[in-house]
Each structure stands twice: as structure tokens, then as C-alpha cells.
User: Fold this.
Amino acid sequence: MNTNHDRNPGTARHTAKWPLAVGAAITATLLTGCQGGQMISLGDQASSYNHEMLNMGLWAIGLSLIIFLGVSAGLFYTVHKFREENNQNAPQQFHGNNRLETVLVFIPTLIVILLSILAVRTMARVNPVSQQSLSVEALAKQFWWNFSYPSAKVTGGVVANGNEMIVPIKQTIAVTTTSADVVHGFWAPNLGGQRAAIPGSQKTWNIGTEREGVYQGNCTQLCGSSHANMRFKVVALPQNRFDTFIKDAVAYTAPAPAAGSAEERGMNVFMKGTATAPMACAACHRVQGTPAAGVTGPDLSFFGTRRTLGAGMWEAMTADHWMAPDAAAHLHAWIKHSPVVKPGSLMPRYDGGEYMDKGKMIKGGTLSDQEIDDVAAYLRSLKLPDEADYWAGIPINGTGKIAGGTK
Assistant:
């Protein structure tokens, strides 16, 4: 993996290039995982957070090697010098060796002090949140994420997106995490460290990257039956494309479907429900520019632009995305019976089956396959303008592939 991206010559980061490169390679080898073909690496040096952590880690590894070699040398010397066949006389009796005891106390103390200084210096570099940072709020729920942008205000709230976090490159991102139910954990390893999302608590820290791409994120706290399915994507864009996304997202209003179209029928089901499925989607989900203002489920304002479903369980990375047969089948099944395809999902069932809600078994409503397809058609229509399609042309980190093509 090439760890040097968009570096400016002459900066402090260029000092000691080869140990950083070696350390990054070792870290990437030991601490890399794959999910959906993506490389997840703590050694990604496009992140200033990871760079600082690796820099401190190399010092810690170096000092650990000194301790290991010193202790090993002392052990082998002692064992060799005082072997029984080399010492026939009775051992001398002595009280102690003040010089040796002083050295054995001084050297560990010096190492601990040095490591403490390095740790405090690193914390001082990665933890402060400046006024120039872009603020993103990450709300965790079982089992999905909602990302909102406090500075991008719209009527009735702010710009928000479910399970897909859009950020600019070469800028510090101040992420504030919290949870609406149990303890979750936010971690996109390529961009920075992890933090717990705790109910009633807000934690803010910095992440970022200097390289555009799509990065994998996961929940790191065991939070229930679909903990492993609580994923998210971070889409890092050049600044001009991010500015376009925010501008168009602020101006966005869900398009009005054509009269008599599948989208219009789906919108009516989404907003009002039906006689056999009185729990309307709008009761739980928000769609910007419409009466749908639910907060129980993910924000669906830009669903037609998104390329993930079920908090990253399925992806639609082709030019047809949710129109492609496989992706359309996943979307249909998700609307029909989400708790069946994702254990622990709190979304109601619309196949007449029972599902768990707040510890109670509830019988779901019923939607016909045609009604479900109409709702899917409405969701696909909820698109940002093509210029704000944050997926188009962005490389998926570690795969050599390009995400979210357009026709």
C-alpha cells in the first residue's frame, strides 16, 4: 500500500520517511481486515490521526526492543557467568550492589517518563477540536447510524443522511457521537480512532483523510443481535464536490411524483399507510421537504442517491444501483420484512408476520408485492441532483474499483 498521498515537501511529516513506511507496512499487514473487498487498515497514513499514532507507536516499539535486548543480554550474561561448572567455590555473601540497583531503577523510570511525554504530545495533537473543523453528529441506534451536519440548516432541522457519512478531504472532521439506546462504538479505521457512542453523553474527536475514497466503518461495541450488521460508509470527497453536496442538500426538496405513477402510489403508502398496514413509513423516517419527519429510523431524504441498504448489509455499486435485479430484490425484501433479513431490526413487518418491539411481539401489517414495489419506486426517486451524487467516480479504498457509476 502506498502510504504517501498528497504530502507537501518540507513538512514535518517527511522526517524519517523510511521508518514510517516500514512501520505502516507492518501495521497494515498485522492490523488489516477485509469487508466486502475493502481494506480496513490502522496503518493508513492518509489520516493525520493514524500518522500520529504510528509515530508514537514506533517510539514505543523501539523502546520496547531496547528493554527486551537489555534484559535478554543481562539474563544470558548472568546464566553464563554463574554456571555451576564455572564456579567451584562457595558463592560470596554480599548485601547488595547499589550501582546496579540505581541503574535498574533509573532506566525504567526514564523510559516511562519518555513514553508519557510522547503520549501527552500525541493526545495534544489529535484531540483538540478547532473552530475550522467540520462538525458531523453521529447518532447510533440498534442497528444503524444517522449522520447530520449542524451547520447545514434546512426547514425543520439540518441536512442528515442514514448510514453514509460524506466528508471533505484535507480537512479535520469533528465527529460527535451519541446513542439513543445502548452503547455502540464508532470506528472507521482508515480515518482515525474509535469512540464509544453512549446514551446521554456526547463525545467529540477528530478524524480525516487526505485521499478521496470510500471507507468502511463499523460498530465496535457488542450491541445486540445485529451488531455485526451495523456498518456505515465514509465517502471522502474533494472540497469542491463536498461543497456541491452540501449546497444541493440544503436546497433539496423531495421531488413531486407524476400523477398516477408508481412513485405517486408509493408516496401515498409511505406517507399514510394503508388499511392493512396502518403504520406508515413516515411515522419513523424523515424525507426532507415533505411532511415525513420521523426520527425513529434513518433519514431517507437522499435514498435514491445512496448505494447501501440495511446499514451496509447490501450494496448497489453499479450504474443501475437500486434498479439492478439483485439490488431491487434486496430492497423489496427489506421493505417487506426487515426483521427477517436483519435480526433485531425494529422496522415493522409488512408480510403479516410478528416482530419484536420494546419487548413485545406485535403482528405486522400487510402490503401487497405491488404496493411494496411502489414504495421502492418512490424511494428510488428521492435523489440529489447528478452534480451532488457523492458516489459517482469515487474509488473504493483497497479494491481498485470505482463506486456508484452513473449512466
